[in-house]
Amino acid sequence: VAINHSSMSAPHPLQPSPSLRARILDILKNPEARPSAVRFGYHVSGTYNVNDPESGGGSNGAAIYLHEQRDDPANKGLADDMISRVDQLRLTEPDVSRADVCALFGALAVKDMGGPEIPVRMGRQDYWVDGTAHAKFKGIDVEAPPTASAHLPAASGDAAHLRDVFNRQGFGDRDIVVLSGGHSVGRCHIERSGYDGAWTENPTEFDNSYFTNLVNLTWKPREWDGPLQYTDEETGTLLMLPTDMALLTDPEFRKHVDRYAKDCDGFFADFADAYARVLELGCPWSSS
Predict the structure, then answer these.
(1) Of 106, 116, 142, 201, which is most buried by a Cβ count within 10 Å?
(2) Helices 18-27 and 78-90 meet at what angle, rounded to 10?
């Protein structure tokens, strides 16, 4: 994919207006929608490859609208739900790009669930609308974007897999751990991923309980017919994935897990920094 970044506008210097924030949060008012919006923000952006920045990955362009990403197994259920909400917002906010809305959904959902403020610069543009190149970008050589399954972490992965995926996106060990802390909200759905359950007792409250659970509870493989996942011996109701357990067993990851389990404010500060960078992956101004 050859993308002419010189044709992109500069990022908007302002945060979204109060009225736009209120409209987004109203669209995300369903308690399960906000955790999904946080995950959606990562899935939209996480196709970026720092070693191949012209490949079309990242949050700029709203490539999630193309069937190659929308129908990818890694986005099963998530993309259709969130795209319908993005389109709902743009009925009243047509001047805000789909790509900006995707980023704003994730950022505002974190804050509204009790998490930190995530700074979002606006100015992303839409390369694709309804699966075809937007008229404004007819001069750009637009091809199919990177698929989600090839660029996002697999739940069954180990520490080496996590580093391979996140390093490709430009993130280090601390970023990997702190972004995993997004599992403090949301849950796995069998019909989507094959996994089942929530990581915390309050999956719509953004805090550091994901890390306190990792450290303080005893985890064992769940006895069931599904893929390998872990449950806590204390209640038998919570979930950890193999990638979550890798944060405990890898010594470099573990030191960050222990720190965030003890320091929620530190977790919030580092998460805000890392997630803001996630939302700018592939944006023309992200290297400035």
Answers:
(1) 106
(2) 140
Whether the CB-CB separation of 265 and 114 falls below 8 Å is answered with: no
Residue range 168-189: average pLDDT?
97
What six digits make up the tokens of 96?
């805000």
Rounded distance, CA 275 to CA 271, Å? 6
Tokens of 284: 């023309």
Neighbours of 84 (CB within 10 A): 10
Amino acid (one-letter) located at 276: A
Question: What is the pLDDT confidence band of residue 143, given thresholds at 50, 70 and 90?
Answer: low
Q: Is 224 a catalytic residue?
A: no
Say whether 128 is catalytic: no
Among all chains, which residue has been given the structure tokens 């965030």? 260
Contact 266, 260 (CB under 8 A): yes
Helix (H, G, I), strand (E, B) or coil at 279: helix
Residues 187 and 155 sit within 8 Å (Cβ to Cβ):
no
Question: What's the maximum distance between 2 C-alpha atoms anywhere in the chain?
Answer: 59
Distance CA 111, CA 150 (A): 30
Mean pLDDT (whole number) for 151-166 = 96
User: Which positions ≥6 away from 186 have C-beta within 8 Å?
Assistant: 32, 35, 36, 38, 39, 198, 199, 203
Q: Which of 151, 183, 199, 219 is catalytic?
A: 199
* Alpha carbon 38 to its chain's center: 5
Helix (H) or strand (E) holding 248: helix 242-249
Query: Cα angle vertex 104, ends 151, 3, to 5°?
Result: 50
Place of tokens 């890798």: 246
